[in-house]
Amino acid sequence: MKLKVCTWNISEGIEGTCNLDSIKEKELSESNLLNSIIPVIKENDFDIVCFQEFPVDKDSIDVISNKIVENTELKYFILHPTCPSYLFKGGNVGVALFSKYPLSNINKLYFKNPNLEKVSKSGHIYHSFDKGIICASINIDGTIVSLVTGHAIAFLPFGCTEFDYPESYIPLEDIICEKYKSDLIVMGDFNTDKLYSLIPSIKGKVIDTVNYNTTYPYYENRGPIKVDYILISSNLKCSESYSIDSLSDHLVCVSVIEK
User: With CB atoms counted within 10 Å of each terminal CB, which end of the chain scores lower, N or C?
Assistant: First the structure.
């Protein structure tokens, strides 16, 4: 078994240097997103792609997803829109999982939300909206691989850290501790550079294949740091790991996983 997997926070297709206080709500730009996403998928021939901050327009919920399916080999997908978009009028945003292989045993979960609130300099009120987790399985020549992807809540904008609310990560912790003895791949933006300190119970259960900073220097005025992960169970191995430049404030993180 050999899989090339990717986790990618696309920041709703907005350039990473933008600031939420300076952005005016706009219509969803399909072309901008698709021109940024599809060439990278095709050039790298990914088997699995996990997106965070994936925008879904309320009037055409599957337009972007269907374009990815039509123009790449990723023919199967799951969307988990979890909260309103700050950037696009009438839109929602969440996590998405695309695969070359049929997806089964699908489950959609949430990180625990402490319901924080912040008023920005421009007077906008921001909330710690729900953030999602997708669980699914694929079958590769009789080998069942469990896939998990998610996007954790960002606590820094609310004047606190993830260590103030470690209970937010319990759903992710439970999944890893339940499935680590199987063929497991966990991918996503977990909004912490200290995941093993935050969830010490996963030490020794999963191996992190991303050994580099995953954000650009302008990320939340604290980058570059590592917040994106590709974790694998110890019965799998990573034969290659690399990053790709991205439109957003996150790099595209790629690993080749083998058994």
Answer: N
Which amino acid is it at 80? H
pLDDT, tens digit, for every residue of 73-129? 999 999 999 987 766 666 788 999 999 999 999 999 999 999 999 887 777 777 888
DSSP 8-class letter at 88: B
Find the Cα–Cα–Cα–Cα dihedral 168, 17, 243, 226, rounded to 10°. -40
**pLDDT tens track for 161-213:** 999 999 999 999 999 999 999 999 999 999 999 999 999 999 999 999 999 99
Q: Give strand ranges (E) for the chain.
A: 2-9, 48-57, 76-84, 91-99, 104-110, 117-119, 125-127, 132-140, 143-151, 183-189, 206-208, 228-233, 237-244, 252-258
What is the extent of the structural domain holding 173?
2-258
- Give the distance, in angstroms, between the CA of residue 164 and the centroid of all CA atoms in the same chain: 22
Q: In this structure, what token pair is assigned to residue 162?
A: 């993830």
CATH of the domain at 28: 3.60.10.10
Helix axes 30-44, 63-71, angle to 10 degrees: 30
With a CB cutoff of 8 Å and minimum separation 6, the contacts of 245 are 251, 252
Distance CA(244)–CA(252), nearest Å, equals 5
